[in-house]
UniProtKB/TrEMBL annotation:
Reaction it catalyzes: L-proline + NAD(+) = (S)-1-pyrroline-5-carboxylate + NADH + 2 H(+); L-proline + NADP(+) = (S)-1-pyrroline-5-carboxylate + NADPH + 2 H(+)
Function as written in the Swiss-Prot or TrEMBL entry: Catalyzes the reduction of 1-pyrroline-5-carboxylate (PCA) to L-proline.
Annotated source species: Aminipila butyrica
InterPro entries: 6-PGluconate_DH-like_C_sf (IPR008927), NAD(P)-bd_dom_sf (IPR036291), P5C_Rdtase_cat_N (IPR028939), P5CR-like_CS (IPR053790), P5CR_dimer (IPR029036), Pyrroline-COOH_reductase (IPR000304)
Name this polypeptide is given: Pyrroline-5-carboxylate reductase
UniProt xrefs under SUPFAM superfamilies: 6-phosphogluconate dehydrogenase C-terminal domain-like, NAD(P)-binding Rossmann-fold domains
GO molecular function: pyrroline-5-carboxylate reductase activity
One Pfam family per UniProt: P5CR_dimer
Subcellular localization(s) per the UniProt record: Cytoplasm
């Protein structure tokens, strides 16, 4: 399929790089347009993809159109998409706060629209992506897009009304995880370890713990209990974190992201 990226910044660029790295999309099948000619030229040279001079040109030449612009750009971008849109094309939006209904209003009520909520680990093939569709998207078309996002990590279909929850639990959560890794590394530095080595120890431990959850099927609570020997170091740390409200702090951050997403959608 020919895929067009309208915007290839942090998220769009991560998805583009992930798709190319997986081999799911070939550079010759990709067209990109953006607001900065200098950045666009550099990206196209780096990845071997084509640049499009306009949104209209991109839409006309693409089967799948990735809307990778910021939410505040949609009022400007959607009318240009509508000029060249035809019913055989699928629009894929990754913007927070922009519903499929509002995209349909801006392009066509009969438009085929898929809304995704990926995260930036797409750039290293470890994204978690929710994929939602409107009734105009048939099963074959949806399967193609789902497979595309499964090539850059994990992807699952969810109802659009769950998108706010997805933002809190996966869309925004890499940022919280980076904070945790950095805090661990800083603590290690204070105890004598070099920062570069401390980051490796912290990040690999997070990666390993995540794989234990995904691959063993054991509940995280039980996995935590399994590590905590009575009177040992781990239970000492866990009890201190529980006393300080570790779970409540994390859930509060999650809820802030969810509440902001709901506010943006109004």
């Amino acid at each position: 399929m020919r895929v067009g990226f309208i915007g290839a910044g942090n998220m769009g660029g991560a998805i583009l790089r992930g798709c190319l790295a997986s081999g799911q999309v070939l550079p010759t099948e990709v067209c990109v347009c953006g607001r900065s000619p200098e950045k666009l030229e550099a990206l196209c040279q780096e990845l071997g993809v084509q640049s499009c001079g306009s949104i209209r040109e991109l839409v006309e030449s693409s089967q799948v159109i990735m809307l990778g612009v910021k939410p505040n750009m949609f009022p400007e971008v959607l009318p240009q998409v509508a000029e060249a849109y035809s019913s055989d094309k699928v629009l894929v939006s990754m913007a927070a706060g922009i519903t499929m209904a509002s995209i349909g209003e801006g392009v066509s009520q009969s438009a085929k629209i898929i809304r995704v909520m990926p995260n930036t680990p797409a750039a290293v093939g470890e994204a978690m992506t929710s994929v939602s569709r409107n009734p105009q998207v048939n099963d074959e078309e949806f399967a193609e897009i789902l497979e595309l996002f499964q090539s850059i990590g994990r992807a699952e279909e969810v109802k659009e009304e769950l998108i706010h929850c997805v933002i809190g639990v996966s869309g925004s959560s890499p940022a919280y995880t980076y904070m945790y890794i950095d805090a661990l590394a800083e603590a290690a530095v204070k105890n004598g370890m070099e920062k570069e080595q401390a980051l490796v120890f912290a990040a690999q431990s997070v990666l390993g713990a995540a794989k234990m959850v995904l691959e063993t099927g054991v509940d995280p609570v039980q996995l935590r209990i399994n590590v905590c020997s009575p009177g040992g170091t781990t239970i000492e740390a866990v009890e201190r974190l529980q006393h300080l409200g570790f779970a409540e702090v994390v859930q509060s951050g999650f809820q802030a992201a969810v509440d902001k997403s709901r506010k943006m959608s109004r």
